[in-house]
Design brief:
46% of the residues lie in helices and 22% in strands. It contains seven helices and nine strands, in the order βαβββαββαβαβααβα. A hairpin with a 2-residue loop joins strand 5 and strand 6.
């Protein structure tokens, strides 16, 4: 019998380290994959089509919406982001732990549509540290940082709707906690499938 994988939602305010946490988690688990999102955002230096995102024009993105090709989509900071269904289903059917690294709007939609999903919210140690992390990126101007901080405060209020909340203060401890969560959830799921 083929065991199905897990659908894991990972959300965090911008600058909280969700991509770094995910990359470190991949070093300790060989069953973890990331769903590749579609976005209307311009590529950043080093980002590749089909690896980091599927970069779409707004009209192409809207066509995906009309054709029901997205599990969820949302607008964040004037750009659209969405999760193509096909890649997620393929990964889960192959027994992978498929991570959706998405904002709280998309997460809420998926949690309501997919009660089998596991939701994790990464919290910063403090708002001051979050602002410092955004400033140290050197990719955002002051207006953008202020917008991201305002969004972060709203997102943090939504953290209680997630099954798990993990503070990303120490990277190794954060990754270890998420790894433990996945192990527990896989064990629980596999036990139910055997019964």
């Amino acid at each position: 019998m083929n065991k199905k994988g897990l659908l894991v939602i990972l959300s965090a305010p911008s600058g909280c380290g969700k991509d770094t946490v995910f990359q470190e988690l991949r070093k300790v688990r060989n069953d973890v994959v990331e769903s590749v999102s579609a976005t209307t955002r311009a590529p950043r230096d080093g980002e590749e089509e089909g690896i980091n995102y599927y970069f779409k024009s707004e009209s192409d993105f809207q066509l995906m919406v009309v054709n029901d090709e997205l599990l969820e989509y949302a607008k964040y900071n004037n750009c659209y982001y969405g999760t193509p269904i096909a890649g997620v289903e393929k990964a889960i059917n192959e027994g992978k732990v498929c991570f959706l690294i998405i904002d709280v709007q998309g997460a809420q939609r998926i949690m309501s549509q997919r009660p089998d999903s596991i939701s994790i919210f990464l919290l910063p140690p403090s708002l001051e540290i979050l602002r410092s992390r955004l400033e140290n990126r050197c990719t955002n101007d002051e207006d953008d940082i202020n917008r991201r901080m305002a969004i972060a405060e709203k997102e943090i209020h939504m953290a209680s709707s997630y099954k798990y909340r993990v503070v990303n203060d120490d990277l190794n401890e954060c990754v270890e906690k998420i790894n433990e969560i996945i192990n527990v959830e896989l064990l629980t799921k596999n036990s139910k499938e055997i019964i």
